[in-house]
Amino acid sequence: MHSSDRTLRLAAIESLKYKTSLEALNRLKALNDKDSEGNYLETDKHVRQLARSAVVKIESRLQFYATIETIFFGLSLGAVLVLAAIGLAITFGVMGVINMAHGELMMLGAYTTYVMQQIMPDNLGLSLLFAVPAAFMVSGIVGIGIERGIIRFLYGRPLETLLATFGVIDFQKINFRTNKNDRGETGL
């Protein structure tokens, strides 16, 4: 594109038109830049027009990919929310319990994964292999403890279970923040 030969510059623009990189987009946009006096840096009008059309094609492709990405992220998030809603509905329908501490159990699993990766910082692949089962086990054990120690006595009384699990949420958050601050880290 920096050649003095017009046909080489046109061929370069033609080949960049099919790229989807930001570097190619920025190089093509630079061909339509003006100097401080308002004159185009690229003097050839045909090269500028071809560069503009290539920019439009690249931007439309980037916009299409961004739309696909947004749809994918939206569907992924929607699937997670649907699973959480189904879990809450099943829990309430079967046990008559409104459990609001499910997010804390997920946080506990995520924190367990974090701790396992801190234990083995040089072996991230191996730490992940151990962290996932450990996260399930820790969350499961705490969940069983919550059910056996608190929720079991409140079956059929949704308001009391709601309040009790809010208490569990507060307890876990305070405990988590206190433990992080004891180590000199910032809390949530």
Features:
single chain; 188 residues; mainly alpha; 2 domains; 6 helices; 74% helix
SSE blueprint:
Blueprint: H1 6-16, H2 22-30, H3 45-95, H4 102-119, H5 124-149, H6 158-182
Q: How would you characterize this protein structure?
A:
With 188 residues, the protein is mostly helical. The protein folds into two domains: 1-95; 96-182, no CATH class. Helices cover 74% and strands 0% of the residues. Helix 1 runs parallel beside helix 3 (45-95) and helix 4 packs antiparallel against helix 5. The longest helix is centred in the middle third of the chain and has 51 residues, at 45-95. The two termini are 51 Å apart.
Domain module tally: 2
Order of helices and strands: HHHHHH
Low-confidence runs (pLDDT<50, min 5 residues)?
none
Total number of helices: 6
Give the radius of gyration.
29 Å
Biggest sheet record: none
- Shape, per Cα inertia axes: elongated
- For the secondary structure, the number of strands is 0
Roughly what is the average pLDDT, rounded to an integer?
84
Structural class: mainly alpha
Residues in helix, %: over 70%
Q: N- to C-terminal separation?
A: 51 Å
Proportion of residues in β-strands: under 5%
